[in-house]
């Protein structure tokens, strides 16, 4: 889970750098659309941006910013697949991941999506640009980032034992193992001679207790016999026949 958060933070940092160059990105799209004689339809998919960069990009600045956009989209797609290995899935988290995968599909139509407050990427466009050309493509990354943050928030609310690593076992067995380890370590680290001596000492104590118990029982039996003998001895008449 920490690895997922770290990857998400790195993507956010890259996006902040990209966001500072939004006007450069819009300019690159404008130039490549002109070169492609494709000025009517909106920029509505990742594959369209890829095609502009591969076939209609004439300068390094435009290529660099278009490539930066495509790299961020690729990083988000890889992270999306990684999220599936962290948790076995619930209705909510699976729904979030499906939306992310749909948005990041290269052929998905982005023309109707719009990033809402607190994102202001659409506000930096003119009304014509936002409505007819670039409103969807500039909204893609912030919307996907919000979805992934929502996924992380849902996962963190779940009990820890419900987290699952698809490549390993459940967290329950992993949690019990460290608890049992100290006891096993303490037993294994105790010398054999010490354990045998302890067992012998315990056995000797048991033997002493048994022998002591037998002596007490024998003494009680003798006392009973002596007492019984005094009561049952032959009767002697009093007087001179007493001795």
Care to describe what's here?
This protein is mainly α. The protein contains 8 helices and no strands. The chain starts with a helix and ends in an 11-residue tail after the last helix. Mean pLDDT is 79; it is low at 165-178, 183-188 and 225-231.
Summarize the structure in short:
The chain has 243 residues and is an all-alpha fold. It has helices at residues 2-19, 22-35, 46-56, 60-83, 91-103, 127-157, 171-189, 192-232.
Task: Give a quick set of tags describing it.
mainly alpha, 243 residues, 0% strand, elongated
Structural class: mainly alpha
Shape: elongated
Main sheet?
none
β-strand amount: under 5%
Annotation, overall tally of beta strands: 0
- Radius of gyration, CA atoms, in whole angstroms: 42 Å
Number of helices, where a helix is a run of at least 4 consecutive DSSP H or I residues: 8
Strand and helix order = HHHHHHHH
Helix content: over 70%
Distance between the termini: 104 Å
| Average pLDDT, all residues | 79
Low-confidence regions: 165-178, 183-188, 225-231
